């Protein structure tokens, strides 16, 4: 299954625009109901909500949507949201045509393309050069943000680049409309309603205006760092101190908000996200099964930093061996900060692209090994066939969902090890054939 976070990649020319839904269900704080303006008549009493305001909206032409909207307005009212804000967010909304919205979600490609395709796009020379120019142009902001937050500027700049082409592409959808459409359809209803509540709170507390929410991704992600509304509410910063958390037009606010979010997600200052590793001949690739060992232990089995002077400043740091292309491409020791990037967006492909772009932006050497160009990736159906066959052979690949995650890779590694093959867990077509053959004989 897709995680609750979702991303969309759009590669067009040199521009790699990515919109992110850095979204997490958030328990909404239900503050005190703002006072009724002086001179207003007492609200009518009914069972609709705390103040008993009956919400009426012009019909959207969709009965199901209209019904959901009235109910949700009452819910927001009961949760203490301001009546005028509730109206401003929900009035005039029409549901997004579902085939259109479903297509947008289906087009999220991170599980279809090979993981390194994103990394290759992200670190292309024009893309990196653009990022370095943007870092130079915003050096004062980056200096100040690095004073206050643990995350280095190149990571923030890489996220900025991935999310919005360094602030140049921030989306054209109305966040309330896309979130309401999902909620009304019953898709992740609690999550989408929570995001709508967060929008109302952000408008109430002056962080942002209703108009700003009209510039969002198809998933409701906002501004230059593509925060979901609840993320903005929880982690947003008013860096330029103008009273607003403006992710749309203030790159300082956007970058400081990203820095604060990563800090709150546990970024460890001074630690790398990953370091490329050189694998010795005759290596047991099954060590790349997600286990964490100390840097000293990885050295003990023969790993060396490929281009960096050291893996990390401490041999006792724990790291995981990551083999995105199995034995056919670069290998990495991943540190805890890789998981922190994934809290922004829970896809290995995303975190890898951010990390590699950050390395380029910081002027670190390019990878010592290139990504494979001649490997045919499995289709989703083939991936399902692989999972089913591994399960039949009792290797426990997990759910048959066509997504090659760690479960499938781990199961394939066990199969490879038992057959005396290079146990890199990498699902080539030849490997699929070998597993299918074994499953047929079983
Ligand atoms: Ca501001």
Brief write-up:
With 442 residues, the protein is an alpha+beta fold. The chain is built from 17 helices and seven strands.
Count of discrete alpha- or pi-helical segments spanning 4 or more residues: 17
Q: Pick out the low-confidence regions.
A: 1-50
| Class of secondary structure makeup | alpha+beta
Strand order of the largest sheet: 4-6-7-3-5
Shape: globular
Regarding quaternary structure, what we see is single chain
Describe this structure in words.
This protein is α+β, with helices and mostly antiparallel strands and 442 residues long. Helix content is 43%, strand content 7%. The chain has helices at residues 63-78, 83-90, 98-106, 115-122, 125-137, 139-148, 153-164, 175-184, 189-204, 229-235, 251-264, 295-300, 336-344, 348-361, 380-392, 406-418, 429-441, and strands at 6-12, 15-21, 274-278, 292-294, 304-305, 318-322, 331-334. The chain is globular and about 70 Å long. Mean pLDDT is 87; it is low at 1-50. Calcium ion binds at residues 238, 240, 242, 244, 246, 250, 253.
Describe how the helices and strands are arranged.
Layout: E1 6-12, E2 15-21, H1 63-78, H2 83-90, H3 98-106, H4 115-122, H5 125-137, H6 139-148, H7 153-164, H8 175-184, H9 189-204, H10 229-235, H11 251-264, E3 274-278, E4 292-294, H12 295-300, E5 304-305, E6 318-322, E7 331-334, H13 336-344, H14 348-361, H15 380-392, H16 406-418, H17 429-441
Antiparallel strand pairs: 1-2, 3-5, 3-7, 4-6, 6-7
The protein binds calcium ion.
Calcium ion is lined by residues 238, 240, 242, 244, 246, 250, 253.
């Amino acid at each position: 299954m897709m995680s609750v976070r979702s991303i969309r990649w759009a590669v067009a020319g040199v521009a790699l625009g990515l919109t992110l839904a850095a979204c997490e269900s958030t328990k909404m704080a239900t503050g005190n109901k703002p006072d009724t303006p002086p001179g207003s008549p007492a609200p009518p009493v009914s069972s609709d909500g705390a103040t008993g305001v009956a919400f009426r909206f012009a019909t959207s032409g969709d009965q199901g949507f209209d019904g959901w909207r009235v109910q949700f307005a009452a819910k927001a009212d009961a949760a203490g949201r301001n009546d005028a804000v509730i109206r401003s967010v929900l009035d005039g909304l029409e549901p997004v045509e579902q085939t259109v919205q479903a297509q947008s979600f289906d087009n999220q490609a991170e599980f279809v393309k090979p993981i390194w395709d994103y990394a290759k796009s992200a670190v292309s020379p024009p893309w990196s050069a653009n990022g370095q120019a943007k870092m130079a142009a915003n050096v004062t902001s980056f200096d100040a943000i690095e004073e206050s937050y643990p995350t280095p500027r190149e990571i923030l700049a890489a996220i900025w680049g991935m999310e919005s082409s360094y602030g140049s592409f921030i989306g054209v959808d109305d966040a309330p409309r896309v979130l309401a459409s999902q909620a009304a359809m019953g898709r992740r209803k609690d999550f989408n309603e929570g995001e709508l509540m967060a929008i109302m709170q952000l408008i109430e507390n002056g962080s942002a205006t209703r108009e700003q929410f009209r510039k969002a991704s198809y998933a409701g992600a906002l501004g230059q760092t593509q925060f979901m509304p609840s993320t903005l509410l929880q982690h947003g910063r008013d860096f330029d101190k103008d009273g607003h958390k403006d992710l749309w037009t203030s790159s300082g606010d956007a970058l400081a908000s990203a820095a604060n979010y990563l800090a709150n997600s546990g970024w460890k200052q001074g630690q790398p996200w990953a370091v490329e590793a050189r694998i010795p001949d005759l290596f047991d690739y099954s060590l790349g099964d997600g286990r964490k060992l100390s840097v000293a232990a990885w050295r003990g089995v023969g790993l060396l930093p490929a281009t960096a002077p050291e893996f990390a400043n401490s041999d006792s740091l724990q790291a995981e061996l990551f083999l995105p292309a199995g034995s056919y491409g670069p290998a990495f020791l991943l540190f805890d900060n890789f998981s922190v990037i994934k809290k922004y967006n829970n896809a290995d492909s995303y975190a890898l692209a951010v990390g590699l772009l950050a390395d380029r932006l910081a002027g670190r050497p390019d990878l010592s090994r290139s990504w494979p160009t001649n490997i045919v990736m499995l289709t989703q159906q083939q991936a399902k066939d692989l999972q089913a066959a591994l399960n039949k052979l009792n290797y426990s690949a997990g759910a048959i969902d066509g997504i090659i995650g760690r479960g499938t890779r781990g199961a394939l590694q066990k199969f490879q090890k038992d057959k005396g093959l290079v146990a890199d867990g990498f699902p080539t077509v030849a490997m699929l054939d070998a597993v299918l053959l074994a499953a047929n004989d079983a």
